From TrEMBL:
Keyword Metal-binding: no
Name by which UniProt lists this protein: Uncharacterized protein
InterPro entries on file: 6-blade_b-propeller_TolB-like, MRJP/yellow-related
Signal peptide: 1-25
UniProt keyword terms in alphabetical order: Secreted, Signal
Membership in a protein family: Belongs to the major royal jelly protein family.
Chief location bin: secreted
Localisation per UniProt entry: Secreted
GO cellular component: extracellular region
Length: 454
């Protein structure tokens, strides 16, 4: 059963979740409750700037004839193309277009920054020849890219789920693979297919984050989420090997599987999805924060656990593994979130897909609802914010794409309307005066209610 393909009614939603994981004491790495400023109640709407927006997508074909031929033979069907992942480095933004349906000619593209036009055709990355055709698949090429991650070594990592027709009749035409491009030369560095025993029937690998310490580019680790079969695949670049990690706290919370947005009601049982990393701590370990899509909770795990291949392949000390994953709090009702980014001040930004909003959390404060704020909420411009990135610029920005995915899946997009929007805001301006500002005092009280599960 694919949550995306066939929503099923859940009859159990009215049951209160009596047994629920208690928030454990997540101790922030550092307490910076320094001064008190009045806390803003309304979001900082106007700090967001529209960068690109489209009613429908088009691609930059080499010439008029090739575009026309692609339309005539069904290789390009504009209304089947829905942008999903975004990433930014320097003067380029990267955009993914997974093959949800047929007629998606390329799955990863780029556009210039700052923008020269409002709604330009996408430029396939690195070029047209890198993209495969689902009807005669060459698995050395890109098939269906979901999301990307640009690391501090100017490399673009992507997860290619290898599935096409994900919304109609899902078809795993190629194994999922991790692909890496060097953005200084736009050349391919790595293409690593996940071994068959790490891919389950109906897996969907849809998010990736990369962990590098002390500038050791050759010792990178990638964490890839399997959102439909609830696992995280860990890949070590130095070992050129991967292993699959699983935990019950990667599962969706069935009490958070009901989504209501813009008059649409559907049920998604998507598991582990949003990922973000804190910088290395004094033990040179990094905390990974994560959440399933069908959940209002945020969780954490030490990456030392994920990176220890023996723990997962030998099954040695399972109690250490089980206890390493903990819930740190919840975002409250309808606090569904897809993806996340953390800036240099260790402030986390996250999408709130059911609220057409972006939230923030200063990770030096406890993950309590009073310590969370919304930096923007707008049912028009942020209709289903589906991917979010914090860039590595000197002045950092938070980037968000909204794409109306539920309308695309369960109703029909109106192509006279702007359907896809990419917006950005300066991270400092976005949090100014909110409780996410490290200069603003937060609460030390831990939430006691059960708002997180109704
Ligand atoms: C995708 O779905 C379309 C429409 O149902 C079908 O014609 C096409 O063969 C499918 N492609 C693959 C590779 O499954
Ligand atoms: C990495 O491993 C894969 C298979 O597991 C292999 O095909 C590939 O050649 C290896 N790459 C390098 C750089 O060793
Ligand atoms: C949403 O954004 C649009 C465009 O910036 C703006 O005109 C509108 O007032 C915003 N709505 C709210 C509720 O802020």
């Amino acid at each position: 059963m694919h949550p995306l393909a066939r929503p099923e009614p859940l009859l159990v939603l009215s049951i209160l979740c009596a047994v629920f994981i208690k928030a454990t004491g997540y101790t922030p790495i550092e307490n910076r409750f320094s001064s008190i400023f009045p806390v803003k109640s309304s979001p900082n709407q106007d700090v967001f700037q529209s960068i690109y927006e489209w009613r429908f997508l088009d691609f930059a074909y080499p010439n008029y004839e090739s575009r026309l031929a692609a339309i005539q033979n069904g290789k390009f069907i504009s209304e089947n193309n829905l942008p999903l992942g975004i990433d930014v480095l320097g003067n380029r933004i990267f955009i993914t277009t997974p093959r949800w349906k047929g007629g998606v000619p390329a799955s990863l593209s780029w556009l210039p920054l700052p923008p020269k036009e409002r709604s330009p055709p996408l430029q396939p990355y690195p070029d047209w020849s890198a993209h495969g055709d689902p009807d005669s698949p060459d698995c050395s090429k890109l098939m269906s890219v979901y999301r990307t991650f640009i690391d501090e070594c100017q490399r673009l990592w992507l997860i290619d789920a290898g599935v096409v027709n994900a919304t109609i009749r899902i078809n795993q035409v190629c194994p999922p693979k991790i692909v890496v491009f060097d953005l200084t030369t736009d050349s391919l560095i790595l293409s690593y297919e996940l071994p068959p025993d790490q891919v389950k029937q109906d897996s969907l690998h849809s998010n990736i984050i990369v962990d590098i310490r002390r500038g050791q580019c050759n010792d990178a680790y990638a964490y890839v989420t399997d959102v439909w079969r609830y696992g995280v695949v860990v890949y070590s670049l130095a070992k050129n090997r991967s292993w699959r990690t699983t935990h019950h706290l990667f599962n969706p919370n069935p009490f958070a599987a009901d989504f209501n947005t813009h008059g649409l009601n559907f049920q998604w049982l998507d598991g582990v999805f949003g990922l973000s990393l804190l910088p290395p701590n004094e033990y040179n370990d990094r905390i990974l924060f994560y959440h399933p899509m069908a959940s209002f909770n945020e969780f954490m795990v030490s990456t030392a656990i994920l990176r220890d291949e023996n723990l997962w392949t030998s099954g040695a000390d399972t109690s250490t593994v089980v206890k390493a994953f903990t819930v740190i709090g919840d975002r409250g009702k309808d606090g569904h979130s897809s993806t996340v980014g953390i800036d240099r001040q260790n402030v986390m930004f996250y999408t709130l897909v059911s609220q057409d909003a972006v939230g923030c959390w200063d990770t030096s404060k406890p993950y309590a609802r009073k310590n969370l704020a919304k930096i923007i909420q707008n049912a028009t411009t942020l209709y289903f914010p589906n991917d979010l990135k914090v860039d590595r610029g000197v002045e950092q920005s938070v980037w968000v794409i909204s794409n109306r995915l539920p309308t695309y899946l369960y109703a029909e997009l109106n192509y006279d309307d702007v359907n896809f929007r990419i917006q950005r805001a300066n991270v400092h301006e976005a949090i100014q005066g909110t409780v996410c500002d490290p200069n603003v005092l937060g609460t030390n009280e831990v939430d006691t209610g059960i708002e997180g599960c109704y």
